[in-house]
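Hello forum,

I keep getting stuck at the same step: I have a sequence, I want structure tokens, and every attempt I make locally crashes halfway through. Rather than fight my setup again tonight, could one of you with a working pipeline run this one for me? It's a single chain of 199 residues.
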Amino acid sequence: PILDLFITLLSMGQTGYRRLLEERVRIRADMLMGLRRVCDRHGISLLDAPNNSISTAVSLDGLLLSVKDEACASDNVVDEVGVEVCRQAKQAIKKQQSDRLSFLGSMLFQRCVSGCRVVTCTGEAKKVAGVTFMDWGSHINSYPHSYFTVACSVGVTDGDITLFLERLDKVLAKFKKQYSIVSASKVTDEGDLVLERSK
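Reply #2:
Ran it on my machine without issues. Output:
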């Protein structure tokens, strides 16, 4: 690989390499505009990362089941058993959300979108070599948003970006149709979460 890179750089020369860098900056600006349009259409948003000129993160919170805090703090939950049932229900929902968002990553990969990395930040702990990590794969422990990353690297073309945005749009539409977004709004006397379909 080092020899291949050396030969490529020699054949391009300094001018060719700088032209590629300038082209990447232009294409990234176009990609961000297109990405914002797709995000707006699906109720998700870009995460602000002003110091990263290559990668962008897209929040997936709009695709998650929301469990309102007041659902478990309602008048119906007055004893420890009710609180525990509510806590377990919320944890089960978070696990389900993590699995679904991971599936979103595989949906993209199946459509030859190989650069996106889905990171599920649902409070799940994972132990690696004896060290516990919260929300494995995120850049910090307990990041407040689940997200996927997309990079605009050297050599990417306008056609690549157009194709990516088309595929992302279709995958998000299919994902939302397959997993209707619902909201947990209250707890019954038995401690069950009541789910309501979002409009």
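The mean pLDDT is 80. If your local run keeps crashing, start a new thread with the error log.
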